[in-house]
Amino acid sequence: MRQAIDEARAALETDDVPVGAIVVDRDGEVIGVGRNERELRQDPTAHAEVVALRQAAWKRDDWHLTDATLVVTLEPCLMCAGAILSSRVPRVVFGAWDEKAGAAGSVYDVLRDRRLNHRVEVVAGIESEACSELLTRFFRDERAGRLGGFRA
Predict the structure, then answer these.
(1) Which of 36, 37, 59, 91 qualifies as a cystine partner to 121, CB 3.0-4.6 A?
(2) Which is catalytic among the residues 7, 37, 49, 127?
(3) Predicted confidence (pLDDT) per residue in 34-74, tens digit
(4) What mean pLDDT is predicted for residues 68-82?
(5) Over the range 57-77, which residues count as b (16 or more CB within 10 Å of their CB) and which as e?
(6) In what order do the strands lie in the sheet with 121-124?
(7) Is 49 a catalytic residue?
(8) What is the H or E stretch that residue 40 is in?
(9) Inter-residue contact 47 to 61 (CB < 8 Å)
């Protein structure tokens, strides 16, 4: 999780929401690294999880990530949950819950939906305070900047 948090911090350099992700194989080797890059790339699909999964699949030359674990600082959204299911990742570890858009147990529970052909083990709340603090600070600062000092 520490490496994912470092990636989240790096996302701040491009004014992206600070979310970071890594993919590790069964031996604990990092095979994919990602951070939010939506602002950097002007790509709505450039979420940390998708970036890390793409890198892992490319490194493996195989989209089947059946022995991998995705570690991410924020609960995956619906799009990322779909990518996780599609890549057959068996385990997701995340830090902060996303009470507005989470798809791993808070708003939706797509990763463990028994109606689907693949289910994922979900481990939540790892380093949750550190992950949440990055996001809280980012959105507080963003709101302050957007207001430009104007107070109604």
Answers:
(1) 91
(2) 49
(3) 999 999 999 999 999 999 999 999 999 999 999 999 999 99
(4) 98
(5) beebeeeebeebbbbbbbbbb
(6) 30-35, 20-24, 69-74, 91-96, 121-124
(7) yes
(8) helix 38-41
(9) no
